[in-house]
Amino acid sequence: VEALKSNLMGLFEKRRARKFFIYVQDYEEDDAKSHEGLDLHKVTTRELISKYGLEDDTVDFIGHALALHRDDNYLDEPAIDTVKRMKLYAESLARFQGGSPYIYPLYGLGELPQAFARLSAVYGGTYMLNKPECKVEFDESGKAFGVTSEGETAKCKKVVCDPSYLPDKVKKVGRVARAICIMKHPIPDTKDSHSVQIILPKKQLKRKSDM
């Protein structure tokens, strides 16, 4: 809704964008009627978007602000990924009643495990803090199956951990560029926001990735 109210798009572009958003909203992978004859596992994002005749700035907004792609490689990849990302964004926006699709910890990252600890307890889970010398266990195929501490092993299907726990298995997949940007004017529509995410698309910055 906010995208359609924005002055970044003209009247006719808003109509085209609305049709595309409705298609994404109604799309269900298991319902062929919602596909409108398109196989999104084969059709690229570029081909899907071209069907609606959207302008480059709108494509940038969709790909980088909604689907959160960091570069433009997605345009030539199957459209199903972008559509799923957009649907996740919309569903998250509707789920959290704060005008944002994101969960943001107000008092540090420790808030996240605390939230999941409460949810885990509801389903009978056990939460342990400050366990010393945690060691991730792997089977013969190299798949993690548990964590050992103080002679006890907690078995699991997946392990989520900080890279420092597995320094010999960490793979470099990208870099984070940090900057302090001093603006010469206020950012529109952010006056009453508790937190703000500003995405600067790569094309507008003439960079290889977004900021």
Pick out its properties.
single chain, 211 residues, mainly alpha, Guanine Nucleotide Dissociation Inhibitor, domain 1, 2 domains, three-stranded antiparallel beta sheet, globular
CATH topology tier name of the largest domain: Guanine Nucleotide Dissociation Inhibitor, domain 1
CATH hierarchy: architecture of the largest domain: Orthogonal Bundle
Could you list the spans in which at least 5 consecutive residues all have pLDDT below 50? none
Structural class: mainly alpha
Write the element-wise H/E pattern from the N-terminal end onward.
HHHHHHEEEH
The spatial strand order of the largest sheet comes to 1-2-3
Number of separate helices:
7
Write the layout of secondary structure elements.
Elements (H helix, E strand, L loop, with lengths): L1 H4 L5 H16 L18 H8 L3 H11 L12 H17 L15 H12 L12 E4 L5 E6 L2 E4 L46 H4 L6
Antiparallel strand pairs: 1-2, 2-3
Give an overview in words.
This protein has two domains: 132 residues, Guanine Nucleotide Dissociation Inhibitor, domain 1; 51 residues, no CATH class. It is built from seven helices and three strands; from the N terminus they run ααααααβββα. A three-stranded antiparallel sheet has the order 1-2-3, with no helix packed on it. A hairpin with a 5-residue loop joins β1 and β2. The radius of gyration is 22 Å and the shape is globular. With 211 residues, it is mainly alpha-helical. InterPro entries: FAD/NAD-bd_sf, GDP_dissociation_inhibitor, RabGDI. Keywords: GTPase activation. Regulates the GDP/GTP exchange reaction of most RAB proteins by inhibiting the dissociation of GDP from them, and the subsequent binding of GTP. It holds the Pfam family GDI. Belongs to the Rab GDI family.
